[in-house]
Amino acid sequence: MKKLFLILSVALFALNGTAQNSETATPYPPAASVNAPTLKFGYFSYDEAMKSSSDYALAQRSLKDLRAKYDAEMKRVEDEFNKKYEDFLDGQRSFAPSILKKRQSELQELIEKNMAFKKEAQDLLKQAEKEALAPIKRKVKLAAAKIGQRRGYAFILNLDGDALPYVDSTMGEDITEAVKAELQ
């Protein structure tokens, strides 16, 4: 019990000394009185700027054509599978057991190939989109950098994807239209 009392009294003494030291120390000045340089910044919608580019429409048209080609091939493969499946259903009662197994494995193989093709087509379309939009993205970045240098911004923010839920327009400037104009 004596040890507990001793520990508590030492702890209270230490706290009392710390509190007195903090009262006599000079407090930090409030944030408003600190002379910090004012930063200018810009913000814009990256997507809106990209979509305003004439190259964007060309890229989208090219991607649409490529997507149509893959869709046509998937439809052809699906029709081929459906025909083989219908043939299988029509003749399954008359097939010998070994032929039945062979046809079932052929259908299973077609299903797996079709699924693999669909996944590959999706991956190839994503890659094609990435490659088609890369030069446009570079142009948008370059346009934003030029505007930022000309106007003396410390940084430029992208408004897309809810990455910037609040912007004080008195401290920053919306440069979406300026970026669009720079792309033309």
UniProtKB/TrEMBL annotation:
**Which InterPro entries did the record assign?**
Chaperone_Skp, Skp_dom_sf
Q: Which SMART domains is this protein grouped with?
A: OmpH (SM00935)
Cite a single Pfam family from the UniProt record: OmpH
Q: From the UniProt annotation, give the residues forming the signal peptide.
A: 1-21
UniProt key word Ion transport: no
List the Gene3D superfamilies.
Answer: Skp domain (3.30.910.20)
Q: Which residues form a coiled coil?
A: 56-131
What family does this belong to? Belongs to the Skp family.
What protein name does the entry list? OmpH family outer membrane protein
Instruction: Name the source organism.
Output: Prevotella illustrans
Q: What is the lineage of its organism?
A: Bacteria, Pseudomonadati, Bacteroidota, Bacteroidia, Bacteroidales
